[in-house]
TrEMBL record:
It catalyses: 5-oxo-L-proline + ATP + 2 H2O = L-glutamate + ADP + phosphate + H(+). Keywords: ATP-binding, Hydrolase, Nucleotide-binding. Belongs to the LamB/PxpA family. Coiled coil: none annotated. It is an enzyme of class 3 (hydrolase). This is 5-oxoprolinase subunit A. It comes from Lysinibacillus xylanilyticus. Forms a complex composed of PxpA, PxpB and PxpC. SUPFAM superfamilies: Glycoside hydrolase/deacetylase (SSF88713). Pfam families: LamB_YcsF.
Length: 254
């Protein structure tokens, strides 16, 4: 039987503004990437999300992003590798504080949005992020886009590295995700998403927008908690994976 992790970006509310149905979606995912206050989230939201994840037995990871609340961390910034390093140290440390209060261990770190995409292509940024994670704890798992500069940097520094694929995003011929500025960036059809995921897990292939088969590795699948009908989508993906003899477990489970 094939095995894969199912992760979701959570804790992305801010103040009185609420985003996503966290309590419900945590029933279907195995790893949670919790925002750390730069692109979304705040101290109270972080604490509440950690509490919910622990209650549901979901493994917890930090989701550091660029300091851009207005742009939800999805707009690129001209940062240095040192700044990338410092941002990751700062944000992971913030989430670690809340985990300590629940006597919980952090499983992984997954950069968010523009920081994630920048690290996928920029070796210097990727290496700075990987080094920051390693310096915090060599036992942490780095989540990065499959086959990207970020996963290469994680493996190079000696981190356990999970190659991530996306259930609801389309791909380009270089293995990158289609820009959200493009109308075909998101997959809204559930069956199309399932078919893409199953092929990525079982065959290690995704069909790009240019109709080119791209090889990749699928250790963890990302679904987005802020999308419309996110809970329904998460439940559907989880159940269909089981039908295809793909078991869903956290990266560090078992």
């Amino acid at each position: 039987m094939f095995r894969v992790d199912l992760n979701c970006d959570l804790g992305e509310s801010f103040g009185r503004y609420r985003l996503g149905e966290q309590e419900e979606i945590l029933k279907y995912v195995t790893s949670a990437n919790i925002a750390c206050g730069f692109h979304a989230g705040d101290p109270t939201v972080m604490r509440e999300t950690v509490k919910l994840a622990v209650a549901n037995g979901v493994k917890i990871g930090a989701h550091p992003g660029l300091p851009d609340l207005n742009g939800f961390g999805r707009r690129e910034m001209n940062i240095t590798p040192q700044e990338a390093y410092d941002m990751v140290i700062y944000q992971v440390g913030a989430l670690q504080g809340f985990l300590t209060t629940y006597n919980e261990t952090m499983q992984h770190v997954k950069p968010h949005g523009a920081l994630y995409n920048m690290a996928a292509k920029n070796p210097a940024i990727a290496e700075a992020i990987a080094q920051a994670i390693y310096d915090i704890s060599p036992s942490l798992v780095l989540f990065g886009l499959s086959g990207s500069e970020l996963t290469k940097a994680g493996e190079k520094v000696g981190l356990q590295t999970a190659h991530e694929v996306f259930a609801d995003r389309t791909y380009q011929k270089d293995g990158s995700l289609t820009s959200r500025n493009q109308p075909d960036a998101l997959i809204t059809d559930k069956e199309q998403a399932v078919n893409q995921v199953v092929r990525m897990v079982k065959e290690g292939i995704v069909l790009s927008q240019q109709q080119i088969e791209i090889p990749l590795q699928a250790n963890t699948i990302c679904i987005h908690g802020d999308r419309e009908h996110a809970v329904e989508f998460a439940e559907y993906i989880h159940s269909r994976l089981a039908e295809h003899q793909i078991s869903v477990h956290a990266i560090k489970e078992g």
